[in-house]
Specification:
Layout lengths: L9 E4 L5 H12 L3 E6 L2 H13 L4 E5 L5 H15 L4 E4 L14 H29 L2 E7 L10 H20 L6 E7 L9 E3 L5 E3 L11 H14 L3 E3 L2 H12 L1 H10 L10
Parallel strand pairs: 1-2, 1-4, 2-3, 4-5, 5-6, 6-9
Antiparallel strand pairs: 7-8
Helix pairs in contact: 1-6, 3-4, 4-5, 7-8
Bound molecules: NADP nicotinamide-adenine-dinucleotide phosphate.
The site of NADP nicotinamide-adenine-dinucleotide phosphate has 30 residues, from α1, β2, α4 and β5.
Amino acid sequence: MAKKRFLNKVAIVTGSSRGIGRAIALALAQEGARVVLNGRDEQRLKEVADELKQIEAQVVYFRGDVADADQAKALIAFTIASFNQIDILVNNVGISSRGYVADLHPSVVEQVFKSNVFGTMHPTHYALPQLRQSKGQIVFISSLAGIHGLPGLGPYSASKMALTAFVESLRIEEFQNSIHIGLLQVAMTEIVHNKEVVAADGSKQLLESRQKGKVLTMDQVAQDCLALLERRKYKKTQTLIGKLNSILNRISPVLVERILRANLHKFEANSK
Ligand SMILES: NC(=O)c1ccc[n+]([C@@H]2O[C@H](COP(=O)([O-])OP(=O)(O)OC[C@H]3O[C@@H](n4cnc5c(N)ncnc54)[C@H](OP(=O)(O)O)[C@@H]3O)[C@@H](O)[C@H]2O)c1
């Protein structure tokens, strides 16, 4: 039998009560990690914890909003109290928004930045002392929307670009402490049936389900996250389109802008 890749590592996955976070937590547990789940809904957390226990994983969960500094601090304290160490932090929490900037209620950008930026920076800040001791790892779950700003996704794109800058700073700051810091730029992925985004008026809006086969599976994203962790790699950009976008954007952002303008109709669903 192959050796489990993350045997006895202690991994926190924020936003793991469903979706991509759940898939990453499950994949880490299958590879022997002890997992700390997080989300704001107790029932959903309990269900995922039960699922992981079925494969005999060591799992605990912490109900809390990581965009709140005190709750993020409590998540880290809970992890140390449960397992006495932290090896991996996967910053997965993130919400998206819809609407052109001209139409956005001010609460939209606030909600998106709170979850995606504060909800990532706070757990990172409080986990760093432990991660320095364990020479541990942090992976940030970003998006192709964080390569070049996309129409209808302004706050979301901006929040994911903020993560890139945060990762760049951290990699320099923590280099001497041997902490691995990675960034996964996720492509369009299947979603849970009740996934919500923030609508232009600031209310929650259900997303339409996505056609299987045309988007990545959550497990594909989880496996890329594990590969990044295993190789302690800096960055992975998913899909050929994502990689081309990334390269072209470095050479000529103006050309990327022209391509996006010519394809604006494909983003119309994001306009409201
Ligand atoms: N799905 C895609 O196509 C796609 C593409 C590119 C990037 N991504 C990125 O992948 C990540 C996961 O996306 P997803 O589609 O799996 O999202 P999702 O289905 O909406 O799941 C989000 C998870 O985060 C939790 N959560 C949200 N805000 C939280 C907070 N402030 N504190 C604690 N937990 C919180 C949710 O549980 P509660 O609501 O119960 O708290 C849930 O467990 C995000 O960063 C997203 O930007 C997704």
